[in-house]
Design brief:
Number of domains: 1
Protein name: EthD domain-containing protein
Radius of gyration: 18 Å
Strand content: 25-35%
Strand order of the largest sheet: 1-3-2-8-5-7-6-4
Shape: globular
């Protein structure tokens, strides 16, 4: 494993979205890729953006990840100005969307494989895992994840990088669709699909230590996504 630009500790904004039936998916994607995401990369502190589509058949179907320099960037004045000065097209789409959930996270840790050169990142496939842990069990959870789980996942064929975060805020645009978002997040990138079926992955999720830790997990969510758009790094990105 290596410490380099690939293991830069950055904060994170995740946006989960479903366009619904009131907007065509073509219009939704054109707006997001040509207007919405590029505008955010003009804000200092928004470092990069990547967009994914779910491969697990679950909702939300779309995920965008923004690496940001610090959590406060997510709601800075320039960001608020973008919202205030949104185009009529953007306002209409946002009003008609079926679901939009924006989450802001601070980093816990990151580990990248030694062969995960910048040209291989972001990974084509994404595993997103969120967990709800009681406060008393958090130290033991972190110890297991850092000392065993992340190391074992790094041995899964195709694994490129794993990043861990703690939730700071979650906003759901549709009041009728409020839901609990779990505090602890892990995002793992792979260069090919099928990673969950490998012996190495099954070993990582089948150890005695893991069995003890998950006894204290109140709830968890697993999501699988495939990369559709890499918007690249912004001008403010720290290289």
């Amino acid at each position: 494993m290596e410490t380099s630009d690939q293991t830069q500790m950055t904060s994170l904004v995740l946006v989960f979205a479903d366009c619904g039936s009131a907007i065509s998916e073509d219009r939704f994607n054109k707006w997001y890729c040509e207007e919405h995401a590029p505008a955010r990369l003009t804000i200092p502190g928004f470092l990069s953006a990547t967009r994914y589509k779910a491969t697990d058949g679950q909702k939300a179907a779309w995920l965008t990840a923004y690496d940001i320099a610090s959590p406060d960037v997510a709601d800075c004045d320039l960001y608020k100005q973008l919202m205030t000065n949104a185009s009529d097209n953007e306002k209409e789409i946002l009003a008609k969307m079926e679901f939009l959930n924006r989450r802001v996270y601070e980093p816990i840790s990151v580990l990248a494989h030694s062969h995960a050169q910048p040209s291989l990142l972001p990974g084509k496939y994404l595993l997103v895992v969120s967990m709800k842990i009681p406060d008393a069990a958090v130290p033991a959870f972190h110890k297991w994840y850092e000392e065993e789980h992340m190391v074992l996942l790094s041995k899964v064929p195709g694994w490129l990088r794993g990043r861990r975060y703690k939730l700071l805020s979650s906003t759901i645009r549709q009041p009728e669709k409020q839901m609990e978002v779990y505090k602890y997040l892990a995002v793992h990138e792979f260069d090919h699909d099928g990673y969950m079926d490998t012996p190495e992955f099954q070993h990582a999720v089948g150890t005695p230590w893991r069995a003890e830790v998950v006894k204290n997990v109140i709830a968890r969510e697993f999501r699988n996504f495939e990369l559709t758009t890499d918007f690249g790094k912004s001008k403010s990105s720290v290289n």
